[in-house]
Automatic annotation (TrEMBL), chain A:
Keyword Cytoplasm attached: no
Molecular function GO terms recorded: aminoacyltransferase activity
Record flagged with keyword Cell wall biogenesis/degradation: yes
Family: Belongs to the FemABX family.
Protein name: Peptidoglycan bridge formation glycyltransferase FemA/FemB family protein
Transmembrane segments annotated in the record for this chain: none
TrEMBL record, chain B:
Domain called Alanine racemase N-terminal: residue spans: 9-215
Protein name: Alanine racemase
One Pfam family here: Ala_racemase_N
Native organism taxonomy: Bacteria, Bacillati, Actinomycetota, Actinomycetes, Propionibacteriales
Xref: InterPro entries: Ala_racemase_N (IPR001608), Ala_racemase_pyridoxalP-BS (IPR020622), PLP-binding_barrel (IPR029066)
Gene3D superfamilies, A to Z: Alanine racemase
Amino acid sequence: MTSASLPGPLRVRPISDAEHLDFIRRRPSVSFLQTPAWAVVKSEWRGESIGWFDGDRVVGAALVLYRQLPRLKRYLAYLPEGPDIDWLGGDLARWLDPLRAHLKEQGAFGIRMGPPVVTRRWHAGTIKQAIADPVLGTLSDVPADVSDAAALAVATELTALGWKELPTEGGFSAGQPKFNFQVPLAGRTEEDVLAGMNQLWRRNIKKAAKAGVEVTTGSRDDLAEFHRVYAETAERDHFTPRPLSYFERMWDALTTEEPDRLVLYLARHEGDLVAATTMVRVGEHAWYSYGASTTAKRDVRGSNAIQWQMMRDALAAGATTYDMRGITETLDPADSHVGLIQFKVGTGGEAVEYLGEWDLPISRPLHLGFTTYMKRRG
Amino acid sequence: MSAGFELDVDTQRWRRHLDTMVEATPGIVPVIKGNGYGLGRDLLAAESTRLGLGSIAVGTYNEVPEALAAFDGDVMVLTPWRPFFDHVVLDDRVIHTMGRVADIEELAAQAPGARIILEGETSMARHGLDRHELAAAVAALGDLRVEGFAIHLPLGPAGRAGGNFTEAQSWAAALEASQVDTTTLYVSHLTPAELAALRTHRPHLDVRPRIGTSLWLGDLGALSVRATVLDAHLVARGEHIGYRQRPMPRDGTLLIISGGTSHGVGLEAPKASSGAVQRGKLLAKGGLEAAGLSLSPFTVDGKQRWFAEPPHMQASMIFLPASATAPAVGDRVDVAVRFTTATFDAVNLR
């Protein structure tokens, strides 16, 4: 997308789902939280697709979720893992000023967004070493293996434009996680990916195959079976499960948008379901989104087998990134979250740090009230 | 007999301190910069040779040629290299400090094969790379040879070395987890106990302290400064004296003593004070200064005495009240010098 003419002013206006989807299809990857289908999943928010126009050409897009303040016709405009604009091209005001104007007109008292900009990366070997070192307690303590100066400069520019980064605790904010774990797939073969894993992962994948674990993909009807295992996992790991209807709604919305946007995976051992997961893919980016496993038959390693199948399918579909999503920043072996990191680190991938989530107040009093309310809600 | 502003060194005692310290501090790199801590850089270079040390650290590139001439080993430069420096000495015995990724790229292009140290930016916030820049720094190295990693820590809570252990530990861990391919860590401002603890916690690292003041000036008893009374005149209250023809406040003796601004006498630098009491003291002193007098660094008859007028270039005029016993011409008096700003007419090894 190069143009010889001088860049004109950009305008923001709503676009149809079809226009939005058309733009996404032309991009290598966009967060699945930025697809028109995601607005359908998040039914408690009002969704709106918007586009940035340079003349009559769409050059950027976003899904905006509006959450209404109690009893007021004012909204928080939330762009999760978005917007999809040219973040590193300089002159962010050119993009963000018309965004602010549009959202203000829609009744937004504030904007929250999560620039899909990666600032730093840590390789698996580095993280493994850091976990073993008692002095290095968080990812920020550990020298990054890759640090993107241009991406880091975006933070300075956002601050100058009045945006404020949302504080996170251990890398977890109320919104999307700042630290994620990803397995790079670009230019790699199945053998490469397998060879990059640690011994335990490779052994477990082999073990599952030897035990006869079979991984298949399921249909909408299989969601109920997935949900049964998912509810069991929720009870074991002490989190509140979402209802089956949520997954059905997600299935309907995402698969309507693209037939293979959402895929359900089921791992069975001698007919018993031992693990079940969902994978979402937009272009070259595949996400492991929900996962569940039974307490029984843990030793057949259904979790490893199902992950391996998702990675292989992502690779076959042309994905360049297999995303295992959020991790906490902690590397403290005493922290219960470290087990999850260690599981992900075993894949040989990398921890990535995003720019985080940022707020721009439009109406200061309302924004302050909202932030206070959210804090109190905990 | 000379009658300048001189430093007498009790050589035996001074060397005893140096030997003890070097023996107790494995890997020590003596810092030889500026005025050579009053002793002179050449003397310190010669002493480093006597101590059998393989490397010294100088402050700036201007100090390098002299150091190379006076010392046979490696010379590391503490000030990070910059592309716009025009006194840079490219010699295989010179080790450059690098604190910016762009500088590394530049030096790698200009002087492939040069020996360097990477410096990390500590809470001093003076020079150095952020820990997340280390990978980019390594990527920019080209054919540069990394000889070590350096951190410059602030003074501790009480204004003395100490209390920096946590930061030193964190940097040592960061170095080990980084892509920087060295096991040598140069540190400054750690106490001997902190150094020992760091070595215990990081057995894979070769911790090398860079030390100036506490090495060269660690036993002040071995150093005595001699200011000589060059002349003495009886003066009466109200009598006008000196370049500025100032009236004397009382009857007394006017002493002309060797040592003036060219020796570093009368230089006022910001005081390293932090407490309210100390600030109060300075204020009180300021009050007297406002009255037109300044306290001199010369001690005569047991007390620090006042300048009769601002110090001259090579001598000072000191007022001694009639109640005090005046020294004779040719007598020596004590001077409180700040060694890092003092210049002596002679340094006498005795």
